[in-house]
Amino acid sequence: MSGHYYVPESSRWPVFAVLVIALFAVGAAASLSFGSGAPLMFAGLAGILLVMFFWFRDVARESMAGLYDQQMDRSFRQGMAWFIFSEIMFFSAFFGALFYIRMFALPWLDGEGAKGISALLWPEFVASWPLLNPPGDNINGPVAVIDPWHLPLINTLLLVSSSVTLTLSHHALKKNKLSASQGWLAVTLLLGFSFLVIQGVEYVEAYQKLGLTLQAGVYGGTFFLLTGFHGLHVTIGALTLLVIFIRLLRRHFSAAQHFGFEAAAWYWHFVDVVWLGLFIFVYVV
């Protein structure tokens, strides 16, 4: 294969991926809007997991067959870099919306700035953040907000620690210490899935005790959009690392060739950095 560019065989997985993602999106939208889309949403989620499994399987088989050369490796790296860039833009849009609401929309409704005439809509509205008293009588804000120095702080420590253990696993792999690499990666997985469990506990507390829901005004909407999409990315990252862990146990990687591990690590570190932004701008500030 030296000097040649490997062109993968035609794959049906991209088409299937689009279909199951669309199914999941339609189900999620129907569930939020009408309360009746749960079966479609879970069917789409199951389809996503199946497509991931079979697609990962095919890529692993091609890699183990020695079909990938240096040119293919560069293509993988460039593709992963562009993918992470697209994710940066994705979260930038949500952070931008949060910034716009806090710095412009709310002050305008309170009579400040160039569009302060907006205060005529709700004369008694007072801008504050977190917004516990949304304007209008048909929306009830949350009773209180989540204490950032409790569960969110624990989750921050978990994710930061997981980045450290993942880096230790990577360094061990580069030194061909497979047992040490497997051990540190197992710890990373434990920390990642613990994060998801704690976030689930946090959501239950928010809904049942604090009145912090998707319907609790703009604060509730931005809170769950940002933390929910991040939780989805953590789930995807953890499942990807689980696949890498299984491949590591099967000795699919060596000190010289392990881009699959590196790509998963890049994604995980990106997710950790996003969480630091969430912790500061959603929970603390």
From TrEMBL:
Q: Where are the membrane-spanning stretches? A: 12-34, 40-60, 81-101, 149-168, 180-198, 218-245, 266-284
Keywords linked to the UniProt accession: Membrane, Translocase, Transmembrane, Transmembrane helix
Q: Which SUPFAM superfamilies match?
A: Cytochrome c oxidase subunit III-like
| Main localization (coarse) | membrane
EC number(s) per entry: 7.1.1.9
Domain (Heme-copper oxidase subunit III family profile) ranges? 1-285
One Pfam family linked to the record = COX3
Localization in the cell: Cell membrane; Membrane
Q: What class of enzyme is it?
A: translocase
Q: Is Membrane tagged as a keyword?
A: yes
Bilayer topology annotation:
Multi-pass membrane protein
Is tRNA processing one of the keywords UniProt gives this record? no
Of which family is this protein a member? Belongs to the cytochrome c oxidase subunit 3 family.
Q: Can you say what this protein is called?
A: cytochrome-c oxidase
Which species does the entry assign this protein to? Bacterioplanoides pacificum
